[in-house]
Design brief:
Structural class: alpha/beta
Oligomer: single chain
Radius of gyration: 20 Å
Shape: globular
Helix content: 25-40%
CATH superfamily of the largest domain: ATPase, nucleotide binding domain
Number of strands: 11
CATH class of the largest domain: Alpha Beta
Distance between the termini: 25 Å
CATH topology of the largest domain: Nucleotidyltransferase, domain 5
CATH architecture of the largest domain: 2-Layer Sandwich
Order of helices and strands: EEEHHEHEHEEEEHHHHEHEH
Number of domains: 2
């Protein structure tokens, strides 16, 4: 079964063609992403109306490029998967309506995919020729992105249990907002990560939230963001060493909370313990977080999985993976399928 998948939940217009391998992974035949990050940079974040308008301009060229890169036409597509939510409604509608139109015109089965399910399954994506083993089930997934921070027990394809989520800002949102305060531009996560590698993570004392016995597995980053704003009340540091130290201290505080909660999730009693640790989402590109999670997995004796950076950020290949497994189980959407800004996993 060859799947055409489309994604436009935020500021990336994406289309991919994937087909299954026998071990549950999917082979990515093409994966095209048109990013608007540079366009939204001067606003310090994504402007929904601008994002929607540019998705309209980009969707057909991106779709044509994905089919050309895969070396197939629509006559060789067996199903269509589209992101239905969560995300910006105006943005979501562009890829969703394009996917519905293709499925209707070609008489193809259609399925709507939860954006976070796509991220959770990004570790199952394989380039042609790759045959690395997939994460075993059940496993613990830490999903960290610009809009979401959550711990999810992944029991099987389509079976998820959310163990903890953010009570305020997501980790990626905190990175972007602090980067804006520091004058580092948008998106801010990569810039902070780069500077953090040149600084000391203990140079500044910053709060570690949600540490109490009743805190559970939820996250909170608003207090850390407020502490950074207080440090920067007089403006961003002009000294490069001080800037690097501040970035390193901030990143260390974010990573510490993420790792602490992940370890707590791994120590809870479960009828069937998790057999692996999987990191996903745009913040999974962060080198400090990758290293800390890999170290945690080693200490716990668990295999650690994380997708290549190109499949951690928003893309359509991950939607194709989730869509394939839903279509394989016989799921089908009808023509009333609509976008949803908020959508439980």
């Amino acid at each position: 079964m060859r799947i055409l998948s489309l994604e436009s939940s935020c500021d990336e217009t994406a289309c991919a063609v994937v087909e299954p391998n026998q071990d549950g992974t999917v082979r990515v035949l093409s994966d095209v992403v048109s990013s608007q990050a540079g366009m939204h940079g001067r606003f310090g974040g994504v402007v929904p109306e601008i994002a929607s308008r540019h998705h309209l301009l980009n969707i057909i060229p991106v779709l044509e490029r994905a089919l050309a890169d895969a070396g197939v036409g629509l006559d060789r597509i067996d199903g269509v998967a589209v992101t239905r939510g969560p995300g910006l409604v105006g943005a979501l509608l562009v890829a969703l309506q394009a996917g519905k139109a293709i499925a209707y015109a070609r008489g193809l089965p259609l399925v709507g995919v939860h954006h976070l399910e796509g991220h959770l399954l990004a570790a199952f994506l394989r380039a042609p020729g790759e045959n690395d083993p997939p994460p075993p089930f059940p496993h613990l997934g830490l999903l960290v992105s610009g809009g979401h921070s959550c711990l999810v027990r992944v029991e099987d394809f389509g079976r998820y249990q959310v163990l903890g989520t953010t009570r305020d800002d997501a980790a990626g949102e905190a990175f972007d907002k602090v980067a804006k305060l520091l004058g580092l531009g948008y998106p801010g996560g990569p810039a902070i990560d780069q500077l953090a590698g040149q600084g000391s993570p203990t140079a500044f004392r910053l709060p570690r939230a949600m540490r109490g016995p009743r805190a559970g597995l939820d996250f909170s980053f608003s207090g850390l963001k407020t502490a950074m704003a207080a440090h920067l009340a007089a403006g961003p540091p002009q000294d490069k060493k001080r800037l690097a130290d501040l970035c390193a201290s901030f990143q260390a505080a974010v990573v510490e909370q993420l790792v602490r909660k992940t370890e707590l999730a791994l120590t809870r009693k479960a009828e069937t313990p998790e057999r692996a640790l999987v990191l996903s989402g745009g913040v999974a590109c962060n080198r400090g977080l990758r290293a800390a999670l890999r170290d945690l997995a080693n200490r716990r004796g668990l295999p650690f999985f994380v997708a290549p950076p190109r499949w951690c950020t928003d893309n359509a290949a991950m939607i194709g993976c989730a869509g394939y497994h839903r279509l394989r189980r016989g799921e089908r959407a009808d023509w009333t399928l609509n976008a949803a800004a908020s959508l439980p996993l």
